[in-house]
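tool_log.txt
---
The assistant was asked to compare two proteins side by side. It first ran the structure predictor on the initial sequence, then on the second. Raw inputs and outputs are pasted verbatim so the downstream comparison step can read them without reformatting.
(1)
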Amino acid sequence: MLHVRAKIAEDGGIVLPVEYLQALGIQVGDEIILRVEDGVLRILTPHQAIEFAQELVRHYIPEERSLSDELIEERRQEN
């Protein structure tokens, strides 16, 4: 995809070209997550952010372990 120049509006807003929105699967009014990594701005959908977080956790939690099951069990024991 081509690089395009954009300007920052007085209110800090940025207008993204329609082609970029389509490529990202984003529509007007959708919520996005902004992230700065090594001085680069990344735009993620909430779904992409969740996948990113899950991938990070996968490196530390064995596949056979279910954190959600453990949380449910802890909640049951509290009652």
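(2)
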Amino acid sequence: MDLEEIREKRLQALLQKQQEQSEIQQQVDQLETAVKQVLTPEALQRYGTLKLAHPEKAMTVLAALTQLVNAGQVREKITDTQFKEILRQLEPKKKEFTIKRI
């Protein structure tokens, strides 16, 4: 392989990766659009804050809300209180440790 072939392969790999990321972003945008319609302004603001501070958690919440919407379990707009409860339910359970002194 000469240098030109290596550059061409690397360029193709980068272009493919960029295209995949673009497709994923489009899918996320579509999901967000659907979910934003069922959130109250306060809950939407909390989602935006969560998205800025913890993008991974925001994606988890987005997936959970999408499942709720697709399953038809959302009959009215989700309030901020309900959104907080969904966040609590998605938090992993923490183990409690007690230290006993003898």
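---
observation on (2): The helical segments are 3-36, 41-53, 55-70, 80-90. The chain has one domain: 3-90.
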